[in-house]
Amino acid sequence: MGKLYDGLDDRLRAFIARQPLFFVATAPLEGGHINVSPKGYRDTFAVIDDRTVAYLDMHGSGAETIAHLRQNGRITVMFCSFERTPKILRLYGTGRVVTPGSAEWPALVSFFPSDIPGARSIIVVDVHRIADSCGYGVPYMDFAGDREHLKDWSRRKSPEDFAAYRREKNTTSIDGLPALDPPTGS
Question: What φ, ψ does residue 115 adopt, rounded to 5°?
């Protein structure tokens, strides 16, 4: 049976740290598309305190999570164990988008390795519900390693390339909601 937790204790933090993959779910207030995004790179997720988590949001072809958070803030983060011990952990909360250049950026980015290229924002989640469930239906899977494609792609981009990419692909969601502000300059 599932259990509710008052905060992210050491056992839950250790479980989170072992997971090489997590999922993020958001939705617009009305109509539109519900979004579920897989997120990898273990070092891109941080537990800030018992009720606050954050993850490094890498450049990607869409900006649904950002658009939904800017509209309504609702977010769920889910971790699944694919190892021997079955477990699913869900963090329900209110998320916000912190972008480079904001006053919060330096303190938040310090939670992540400095050698991860291609961050377009940090998603911070104020967690109001922490719940686990059995995970009995989740298959066993072996972790073979991180794909380096996104990091390699990001290392080849200049600041101007990223600005053009954000302008083309990340200013609105697929439903037309505002996402990242268009970059200024280039």
Answer: -95, 15
The string of DSSP codes covering 12-71 is: HHHHHHH-S-EEEEE--SSSS--EEEEE--GGGEEEEETTEEEEEEE--S--HHHHHHHH
Q: Using CA atoms, how far apart are residues 82 and 14, in angstroms rounded to an integer?
A: 15
Q: What pTM does this model have?
A: 0.94
What does the alpha-carbon distance between residue 1 and residue 21 come to, in Å, rounded to a whole number? 23
Q: Based on the number of CB atoms within 10 Å of its own CB, is 25 exposed (0-12), middle (13-18) or buried (19 or more)?
A: middle
Longest dimension (CA), the chain: 54
**pLDDT tens-place string over residues 43-59:** 999 999 999 999 999 99
Whole-number Å distance between alpha carbons of 127 and 129 = 6
The range of the structural domain enclosing residue 38 comes to 3-169
124 contacts: CB under 8 Å, gap ≥ 6: 48, 52, 53, 54, 95, 96, 98, 104, 108
List pLDDT tens digits, range 5-64: 999 999 999 999 999 999 999 999 999 999 999 998 879 999 999 999 999 999 988 999
CA atoms within 13 A on the CB side of 133: 9
**In CATH, what number is assigned to the domain containing residue 164?**
2.30.110.10
Q: Does 165 fall in a domain?
A: yes
Q: Which residues pair with 49 in a beta bridge?
A: 52
